[in-house]
Amino acid sequence: MRTETEHTIYLKDYAPTPYFIDRVELEVEIAPEKSVIHALLHVVPREGTEPGTPLVLDGDELLLNSVAIDGAPLGLLAYEVTPSSLTINEPPLRRFVLETTVTIEPEKNTRLMGFYRSNGTWCTQCEPEGFRRITYYLDRPDNLATFNVTMIADKALAPVLLANGNPAGSGELENGKHFAVWEDPHPKPSYLFAMVAGDLGAIHDSFTTTSGKEVALAIYCEHGKEDRCLYAMDALKRSMAWDERRFGLEYDLDVFNIVAVSDFNFGAMENKGLNIFNDRLVFAIPETATDADYDNVERVIAHEYFHNWTGDRVTCRDWFQLCLKEGLTVYRDQEFSSDERSRPVKRIEDVRLLRSAQFVEDGGPLAHPPRPDHYREINNFYTTTVYEKGAEVVRMLATMLGREGFRKGMDLYFERHDGQAATIEDFVAAFADSAGVNLDQFIHWYLQAGTPQVAISDEYDAASQTYKLKLTQKTDPTPGQPDKRAMVIPVRFGLIGPNGSPMGWSKVSGGKVEGDLIIFETDAMELTFEGIANRPVPSLLREFSAPVKLTTSLSAEDQLFLARHDSDPFNRWQALQTVATGILLDAVRAGGKLTDASRVEALADALRETIEGGSGDDAFKALTLSMPTEDNIAQAIGQNVDPLAIHEARGALRKAIAQRLQDRLVLTYNALADDSPFSTAQAATQRRALRNACLTQLVASGTDEAFALAEAHYRGATNMTDRMAALSALVHANAPMAQALLGDFRTLYTADPLVLDKWLSLSAQVPDAGTLDRIKAILADPTFPRNNPNRLRSLVGSFANANPVQFAQPDGSGFRFVTEFVADVDKRNPQVAARVLTAFRIWRNYEPQRRAAAESALRSLEESGTLSRNTADILGRTLA
Ligand code: ARG
Ligand code: ZN
């Protein structure tokens, strides 16, 4: 395999640069085809730098026009240019100004890193290493500088000129040009740099901070879509208020701008004072966005805003520390959503994501610790491990320290590191020091990959009235980490008596138990509870208090007992999932058929009770109705996976449940009908969630009546949530009218790219052998936007990640299609290509025929020519 460059970067090699830059003045002349960047970098040698030490700046696809020091042009021998650097051979050993002029071509930038053009708008993406595609720089997060940016552009093409910080001047120039100056007083690393220039619409609002500072807020977007930004603005203001309330953190500039662009490699970016978003995470109106889309807009608006403190004010020393800002900020956005909505529902949703993405990553060839110690391509480490497992690690700290203890640690972290580039060690030390606890073992959550497997069994002795819990933990080897150590695992728990109420104990021995928290930090432990009058049922890992795989000795009856009586909603949900998983594993073993009718009945009865009365809101009830996903089941099986058997087993269980609950589902469906105007209020969204879950479950029965009901639901829908729910249910059931309705949907929304994504994604998920050919036809259409990441991911990403049966066709056709797609896209946008390729991380888990087919597709990608470093890195690790 040939790749662009071979190199591995190690954490142990971290060293500060001999020079640093503390002030940047940029003048950017934006013009179609070629933009010119004139940079003044204020350079200071670090103490101890030897005379004659060269200054090495990063660069990528830059055309250097001139270079000078303190105004004097440099001779040809004084510097050296390579494709990735500019070296000043013998810079002065004092403060000086390095002046460079480079030309770049944003219109040709299909990688969407650096300065590029999306739909007419010029914009930037610099994290992690995009700034070097704008100008020569120390493009690493530990160099913090203040920035002053002057932007010059044609006023007709770009009436809006935005950069980081506060506005500091603007005016007219000759030839129809104008300029704007932006000053960012907060020292920042280059990855937080941003500029936007274009002809954009906007909505404006304001927010007054607790200390009385008025902040001007704006969201910019394509003209005509302003009304779609109102919900995002509302979410922004709620985020700002929440961060003041919960963490005492106020905003620190006069303006906060958000820009929605349509070509963006991932979700959004927290550039200081100028967040740039994938438009799918800004736009939300009932006609085009589902309730899930609204949730995502709220979540990501909050996430990027929260980065202002966790990321921007305190940033990362190097990219190994990425989860210092990402894990922490995901934790903060999760908490925000929990406070704004239903906490149990949010927790269940987050755990579902963790299990279906992070656990899979952690159990395969791409496993890495939340803080890796080496990488070839940092872009490949914006992973669910860094983000979601990183958030779980922070959550465990909060669980063990309590809400106040956690807040104290956060306060100390900001007190110590505001304005600095910090490390995971700094973060953990703030909590250890503020709480006076030792976190030396805890920190290994950041350093060790793999999901710990925790097994708990129990034993009751009536004679002595003692109850024992025996715990063991073990983590399987992961690439580069053969031997694992024990983790500090906080297990929140309760004991439930025969009548369903909580049980206390007179004494517990054998390990650390603090209130309702077991701190399990050794390979094995045996707890003895005394004064237990009856055999209790234990509720373990309440709230999913640690990111582990738990197995217990509880019977299906015990689980159903928990489903009815546990005071912890997460574990009520989990108990039903556990029972369902047991049934499904047996069914898969039997080739896709249900084997134990009475267990299925017991599960259905418990579900009925949950829907009928049960504690929990409607959204919680909706979640209990959704059975474990095909991926969840594949994970539980582990090896020799046959996706078709899983698909059939799951279909059989859903059908059996639908048949048994039919009357109840119809009643609830009808009772929840709602003809009041659309609202995003909690009660309304939860109602839609449960009603649509009932419909989806009914469709699983496969009857003509259910299909007809769903079709009517689709046609009568007055919002996208209901329309998509019906369509999606019919598509996944491969109902006879599914193709016709997909066609109808496409015609209805042909002018709306974000809704078209829903069509692309659903079309790719049809569990039918014709799907692959239909996808190929869509891609071959000359009008298909081949360079837009959202379109590509919706179509091919959904196929590879959400259509397990067709992706893993035993003849290898699905695999080959995806690897050929990756090879093609890799030439234009390596990040999108590499991300799609990660769908193969499960290839070794398939049964032999599919495994061989997957391997052969991967091998031919390896031989297909030059791959980007991004794709080569993923491919190399996947095959290793
Ligand atoms: N920092 C951004 C965020 O939190 C994401 C940047 C992703 N960058 C990347 N190269 N994948 O959401
Ligand atoms: Zn983030």
TrEMBL record:
One of its GO terms (molecular function) is alanyl aminopeptidase activity. One of its GO terms (biological process) is proteolysis. Residues 557-880 form the Peptidase M1 alanyl aminopeptidase C-terminal domain. The keyword Metal-binding applies. Pfam families: DUF3458, DUF3458_C, Peptidase_M1, Peptidase_M1_N. Residues 27-192 form the Aminopeptidase N-like N-terminal domain. Residues 231-444 form the Peptidase M1 membrane alanine aminopeptidase domain. It catalyses: Release of an N-terminal amino acid, Xaa-|-Yaa- from a peptide, amide or arylamide. Xaa is preferably Ala, but may be most amino acids including Pro (slow action). When a terminal hydrophobic residue is followed by a prolyl residue, the two may be released as an intact Xaa-Pro dipeptide. Its EC number is 3.4.11.2. Its cofactor is Zn(2+). InterPro entries: Aminopeptidase_N-like_N, Aminopeptidase_N-like_N_sf, PepN_Ig-like_sf, Peptidase_M1, Peptidase_M1_dom, Peptidase_M1_pepN, Peptidase_M1_pepN_C, Peptidase_M1_pepN_C_sf. CDD domains: M1_APN. Signal peptide: none annotated. Belongs to the peptidase M1 family. This is Aminopeptidase N.
